[in-house]
Amino acid sequence: MARLADYFVVIGYDLDKRVEGEGQGCILQRFPEKDWEDSPFPQGIELFCQPSGWQVVPEQQPASFFVAVLTDINSDRHYCACFTFWECLDNPQKADGSRADEADEEADVVQPARVFAPKSLVLVSQLDYTEVFRNCLGLIYTVHVDDLSVPLETVIGNLLTCVIPLAGGSQRTITLGAGDRQVIQTPISDSLPVSGCSVAQLFRQLGIVNVLYLFCAALTEHKILFLSSSYQRLTDACRGLLAIMFPLKYSFTYVPILPGKLLEVLSTPTPFIIGVNSFFRSETQELLDVIIADLDGGTVTIPECVHISLLPEPLLQQTQTALSMVLDPELEVADQAFPPQSTQPSALKIQDKEIRAVFLWLFARLFQGYRWCLHIIRIHPEPVIRFHKAAFLGQRALMEDDFLMKVLDGMAFAAFVSERGPPYRTTDLFDDLVANQVERIRQEESCPHKVLNHVKELAEQLFKNENPYPAVAMHKVQRPSDSSLNPTQNQKPFPVLDEVSVQLFIDHAAAKLKTAPPVVKAEVKSMVPSGPPLGDTVDRNGCVMANSARRLEVVRNCISYIFENKMLEAKKLMPAVLRALKGRGARLCFTQELNQHVLQNRAVLDDQQFDYIVRMMNCTLQDCSHMDEHGVAAALLPLVTAFCRKLGAGITQFAYSCVQEHTVWTNMQFWEAMFYSDVQNHIRALYLETEDGEQHSISQQQQDGSGSRKDISALELASEQSRLWPTFGKEMQAELVQKEESTVFSQAIHYANRMSYLLLPLDTSKNRLLKSSGLGDVESVSNSYVTNSIAGSMAESYDTESGFEDAESSDVANSVVRFINRFVDKVCNESGVTNEHLKALHIMIPDIVQMHIETLDAVHRESKRLPPIQKPKLLRPTLLPGEELMMDGMRVHLVPDGRDEATGLMGGPALLPAEGAIFLTTYRLIFKGTPTDPLVGEQVVTRSFPIASLTKEKKISVTAIDQYVQEGLQLRSCTFQLIKIAFDEEVESDLVEVFRKHLHKLRYPQHVHGTFAFTVGQCGKLVVEHKTKDKNQSLKTLSRNLVKTAKRTIVRQNVSRKKYSPPTWENRSSLQSELDEDEISVSEEVDHSVLTLSSTIRSSDRQTMSNVVERACCRDYQRLGLGTLSNSLTRSKSEPFRISTVNRMYSICRSYPGLLIVPQTIPDSTIQRISRCYRQNRFPVVCWRNSRTKAVLLRSAGLHAKGVVGFFKSPNTPTAVPSQADSTSLEQEKYLQAIIGSMPSYSESSGRNTLSGFSSAHMSTSDSADKLRQPKIGMLMKQVMGVKEEVPGTFSRGGRWGSIRLTGSGALRLSAYNPDVGPRLAGFESPQPNGGPSEPLFLRQQKAFLYIIGDKSQLKGGKQDAFQQWEVVPIEVCDVRQVKNSFKKLIKACMPSSVTADGFLRCVEESEWMSLLHRVLQVSVLVVELLDTGSSAMVSLEDGWDVTTQVVSLVQLLSDPYYRTFDGFRLLVEKEWLSFGHRFSHRGAQTLASQSSGFTPVFLQFLDCVHQIHLQFPMEFEFSQYYLKFLAYHYVSNRFRTFLLDSDYERIELGVLFEEKGERKSPLVCKSVWDYIDRLNKKAPVFYNYMFSPEDEEVLRPYTFISNLKLWDFYTEETLSEAPSYDWELRGRQERAEEVADKPDTSAPVTQRRIVWPCYDNLSKVMPDAISKLLQDLQSLEAELGQTAERWKDTWDKIKMTQRTDAKPESKPSFSSSLLMASNLSHQRRSQGVCLQESAVGPSLNLGLDCEGGATSTPVPGRTSTSTLYSQFQSTESENRSFEGILYKRGSILKPWRPRWFVLDKTKHQLRYYNTRQDKECRGFIDLAEVEAVTSGSPMVTSPKITEKAYFDLKTTKRVFCFCAQDAASAQQWMDSIQSCLSDA
To answer: pLDDT tens digit string along 1594-1605?
Structure first.
């Protein structure tokens, strides 16, 4: 029973404490005046009566009512029902004369004579009966205003003495003695909240989604603020929110109505639910972390910084659906044609219960099975229960779910566990739901209508709980009369009540209560049902990893093999087991299997068994989270202290010392859960034992019964014990309590030991574990919030640390002691261990730890002596001569990355992961090891790359498949290698740091002298000497000698090669020596018969050596006929160009070579001035000339901004004073004019600028070819300049690199800024507007003599003069940054570090590498076209050393066959890339200085372009694809000095160039990559292309669309058997090593077959092509016969020559010769071009194909025509010629017998005949199916005179054929062959 009202209070306006309009309230009277003992009077009640402040108003307001809620210190809620009315006062300001002077300020405000002040009647109660309170207070007010005859004291006395039951569903009628009657219904169960209509109202005001947000926010402990202008609505909304949280109870600040004066409460850091009047809205704006729900506006505002975790799916969706079906049933049928009649939502109070039922259903689903995760740790005197959160989440598979994690960690859930945990108590609706209806909920959850039915059933129960007697509603309460509600006359104020009479009422009632018998309401307690266990639910959800029986079988087998000592079998199964242990089922199976091998808590193993078991334990633990949600670590905990091995006398090592590296051991919550679960088991055992003891004497049947009690769960047992507790005597009770306490205490000691086992590392000198986990600071977040103050204070004394470890106390022992102390304090306080025991524990723990450390030291000492367990021995890598180890091998695992080939996933062996060592040498980073998979264990896996090519190194933490590995590294190289390693546990982490430092130092040396190319074979001192010597060298003397020697070189060269014609095979060898004439002889034996340049130079004469700098350029200039030295006396004026020495001091341009080709007419002084207009002073110089059209190719950098303006100025603009800028621009024009003037076509056309004048000699020579070509240029030009038109075969994504779209008028917008560029170029392909032919229009066009390829972004704003003879082609260049980023993406695509969702091809496409190649090739092809049609071209892009170099080199390669030979390509790279200063060091980030700029592979891009051209024209290149890969690898490897430094100037300054060509100190170390290639090429045909068969003067025009480009296999291929194959010395050594290793097995029969694995074997070595194989065999045969081996090249040339002579007479080609003949064939594209042209494919394809027309339409004389060669092969190779020869065949009547070449074809079953053997066209055939007989024939009159037996006849169904062979024998052969054909059929 409880009082309906505790206090009645009258509160009025306090006139004395009024300050500036702000009044205060004061308590006028309160009854009773003395506080009740069980419910003290709430303080500050006057604030809550007027939450917006006490104020007087000029007009009377209507009475108001609301209920405020106050919470006292014991967190009990007091409901204050406030009834407020307004009483008239005389204006206090008028009345109070003393205030008159103050009022002067407000004189202008007219003060009313009367004002109204509020007065409140307040009821304070612990019960929440809003309506009853409203009626009672209303009645008191009515009695007052209507002057009823009842004294107010009687009414109030009756109110305060009214007593009602709390619950039980009874009815109580009350009356206050004023003729009133009210019926109060108590709820049936007081645990269910009473909500009225508040929940439904809340949903109406805010909507479903908003309330769900608030619901989740309240459960996850966020701050919630309600705003409304109605106080009652605030209270209702808060009540509604709390009601839907049932069965959880809100335990933070709860203030439904907060007075304005207390608004600072809102900035509290703790969560709250608070309501505030909208009047204070502005003051809530600056709250940053509060969720604001505006009830009047229906909005919920969530600040940005607040993240609300929502319900997990599918729960959220299902809840929303159920709510919308309750709130808006019409929604479902809204679209139906015939909607049902009654779809109205339920009445409000029913709807309220339905909504609550949905939330009850939701909680039943969230918490289902929670009772299976309760640990009962004490039963007596009070049950103590803990919740095992990790197990609950693990079984629900909701570990990752943010919402549930937060709810379970929250205070509401902690209260839920302590309230609902006890197993013996009264149960309610929720208990029933979660225990008995889980199955129903699970089956119905996917069917909304069934859910709705269930919800309605629950709603009915909820409604019944609140309204047990719905029929009775006999209320009779008087309301005040209308006249008194609207009074006109003065109302009398509320009277002062007589306190004595009220108190008498109260005392009288109290006395009555004392004498009355106590009301005993029997509480029905029962055992709380647990419901179905969790296991099944999860498997149904399918969240658990599937564990097939096969996997579990593998685990079981492996363990039984280990214990049966079948180690080889176990080893084979091991990888599969380790993979299987990723699954939860397999891990639990593993722990169960191990349990069976433990006898009496101990299992002693031998070393290998121990190692395997530990590996499997580590693997099992490594996938457990620190929470151990699946209980795997818990199951392993007893096992790690059971399995052990004997190390020596009396020393045993347990498994726990090898499995400590897992975070789960440092997690306090894990230990608590483990402890509680063990305590529960022991307490259960304790009670089972006592019962068994009692029942010992009873008969056998009952013993069977007690045996079955073993299955009883701990909770059931506890429930039974709780029921019996009151029946035990005092002593019995004390004994039970003492037994339980000592059980917990003994477990605490046991756990202190266990924890020290797992927390103290084997080597206690290393604080390894604590560093990684911050053990000292791990706080426990458990569901316990109670701490015993004594234990707490005692813990302080033992554990005085502030969460940070002090420096001196941070050794292992102390931190472990602290950790265990904290654990012990916590669990002992919660489980009620006595203080004496707790003190004893604190004294014991340091001793336990110390003792354990001592035993560990001995174990550690012994374990070091153990031989390491069968780790594979480290294999030493083979090193290059001069390469030294910087760090010895560190044991590592090579881990698989994102590529599948080596892991065995795509079939093939699992080569990775591999175990081995990483070696750091001066040149490379090498991994060498063996696969961990025992099935391929005998293979050797190698991965390596040059250190200089390292692009990214990052630390990673790798979990190798079996070991828990500390740390790893991921190393990427720009040679497309990725090494991802995990360091073995034996490698110290500081050693890893040393390794990284060394690596960094080697990758980025301080100076280029630190690179491998310099340090190899040298001591450091020498390097320093070099540096100083070169620095002092005078550049002047250098340049003088340079000019002299260059002159000498040119004079000495007798052969003037104006034009290169590929030599015939006969004289190829003699030419070779000619080309070598001015090179230092590379071969080891010097040929003294020829006077080479090297023999004339003294090696001591350093200065003279300088001519070598220019040798490449000079030799090429002379070959091209480009000029002589400027100060030579014999200079001929007719030569248009000269070699200028203006840059001999490198004074004009540091990055250009010393000698440059410039126009003859331009003096050196002009050059100096012109150079200033260009970036980096790189002014235009000639680098190549077309031998046919005499057009020249120039290169320069882009113009400076000021240069651009001058460049486009019209020369005719008159200027008053010629400024310097103008003069330079004039000189620039002169310079360009001089270049144009040098072209014969210009002088011939004598300045006329039309194309007709331009069609000079070269046009008449190949007119037909050029007519084909002309439209091509316009097309190309538009493509390059980026006007769009879709062309078949392009990716339209390329956008600006697509092609053009013509406009109807024929005019073209070529670029955005310059409309004048149009007519000359665009006209090349503009059709007439009427669609007529464009030929005449084309001929009218002017054509520029010089095209300048410039950068679009630079040339903005320039205006072009129509009369100039040059034209600018603006293009968009790819920026260096673009190349860098694209390359990064390409590397990631080709070598992903982990498996990506995007496919490989998508990643390659996104890298845009192909589109960059496409741009470069496209521009190059355009320039080739321009040069070939007689216009010169100047490439003037960026700084002139990146894209310019690429384009210029490609143009020369495409236009001039010489550059497609070994010598030519070398010369091209030396000239354009090295001499013209491509910044190799800077772009390759070779030194520390250029580290920040990053790696930009401009040269690699060029090589890739060459590779693309090589693919399309395989017969045009003397070198193979391997040659390009070799250069791509070694230009970044820093093995050679060739590609170091940024320019010739730098190379001279360091003396690199002299040294490189000078005498070689050690023949082993090659300093130039070219020398190395030459040497290698003489030994073996690795770089040679057997298909090399060039056409004379062939200009190549490759397709450039992205669809025509192929990804270079250099980027993707890998050879794990031997690492990249570009260091040939290593290959030789490895082969020798392999031969030595293979020798012993000579006795056994050896098979010739071998398996070839992609990504492992080097295919070119294992499966060489036929020609290489034959040459190899030839060499080995010569060696066997003891002959001096002939050079492969000589052999090859000889074979070619014989092949050539064989092919001339019309003899029958044999197979072997036809193989070689294939290499003589022209490239397939040539014939293909012809075919496609003949069939009109359309203009779009002509872009790539027309260009071949000139080369292919006329067959080359003296050689079989290409097309016939092809057709010969097509027609002969495809046939099966069974028998062939000449037969005479009788013609028709009167025609003679003719000899024909007959072919008998078994396959096609026909006899064909041709005119001659060479004839490719079949003249007729006889189908053998029609042949009836073959008989001997006889000669006729006209037949040839041959023996009679040579004749035979062939009789078919249609006619008889008569044949005559050359003799009788061949006739017989023919007959037999035909006969056998017939019989086969």
So the answer is: 899 999 999 999
pLDDT computed for residue 1597 by the predictor? 93
137: closest CA among 3, 257, 10? 10
The two structure tokens encoding residue 1021: 């001192």
What Cα–Cα distance (Å) separates residue 1641 from each residue in 652, 772, 939?
Answer: 44, 52, 17
Question: pLDDT digit string (tens) for 771-824?
Answer: 444 444 444 333 333 333 333 333 333 443 334 344 344 477 888 888 899 988
Q: Which of 484-488, 583-587, 1443-1447, 1710-1714 has the lowest mean pLDDT?
A: 1710-1714
* Amino acid residing at 1347: Y
Nearest CA among 1653, 1667, 1659 for reference residue 1716: 1667
Handedness of CA 232, 234, 239, 243 (dihedral sign): positive
> With b meaning 16 or more CB within 10 Å and e meaning fewer, what string describes 616-645?
bbbbbbbebbbbbbbbbbbbbbbbbbbbbb
Joined tokens for residue 561: 């093999």
Answer for the pair 550, 584: CB distance below 8 angstroms, yes or no: no
The HSE-up count of residue 292 (CA atoms within 13 Å, CB side) is: 22
Q: What are phi and psi of 1521, to 5 degrees?
A: -60, -35
Question: Angle at the Cα of 1579 (from 1576 to 1583), degrees rounded to 5?
Answer: 50
HSE-CB for 1237 with a 13 A CA cutoff: 15
Structure tokens at 1062: 């590929």
Contact 923, 1529 (CB under 8 A): no
In eight-state DSSP terms, residue 838 is H
CA dist 1597 and 1604 (Å) reads: 13
CA distance 905 to 898: 11
Biggest CA pair distance of the chain: 167
Separation CA 1486–CA 1484 (nearest Å): 5
Residue labelled with tokens 């030595």: 1636
* Rounded distance between C-alpha atoms, residue 550 and residue 576, angstroms: 11
Q: Which amino acid is it at 1518?
A: E
Specify whether the CB–CB gap between 387 and 370 falls below 8 A. Answer: yes
* Per-residue pLDDT reduced to its tens digit, 1422-1461: 999 999 998 999 999 888 889 999 999 999 999 999 999 9
Task: Report the C-alpha gap between 460 and 354 in whole angstroms.
Answer: 8
Round to whole Å and give the CA distance between 752 and 821: 9
Contact between residue 407 and residue 393 where contact means Cβ atoms under 8 Å apart: no
| Cα 25 from Cα 15, distance rounded (Å) | 9
CA pair distance 658, 675, nearest whole angstrom: 22
- Return the bridge partners of 1562, or none: none
Cα dihedral sign, 536-537-540-542 = negative
pTM of the model: 0.55
Give the pair of three-digit tokens for residue 428: 């309610």
Q: How many residues in total does the chain contain?
A: 1881
Query: CA 1164 to CA 1143: how far, in whole Å?
Result: 9
Residue 1733 in 3-state DSSP? helix
Nearest CA-CA partner of 670 in 641, 633, 640: 633
pLDDT(1473) > 90: yes
| Residues 991/890, Cβ–Cβ less than 8 Å | yes
Q: Is 647 helix (H, G, I), strand (E, B) or coil?
A: strand
Distance CA 35, CA 29 (A): 14
| Of 620, 627, 630, 632, nearest in space to 658 by CA | 620
Backbone phi, psi, residue 336, to 5°? -75, 145
Token match 């050079």: residue? 1687
Alpha carbon distance 1552, 854 (integer Å): 64
Tell me the CB-side half-sphere exposure of residue 359, using CA atoms within 13 A: 26
Q: 1381, 1390, 1450: which is closest to 1414 by C-alpha?
A: 1450
Taking Cα atoms as reference points, which of 159, 198, 135 lies closest to residue 32?
A: 159
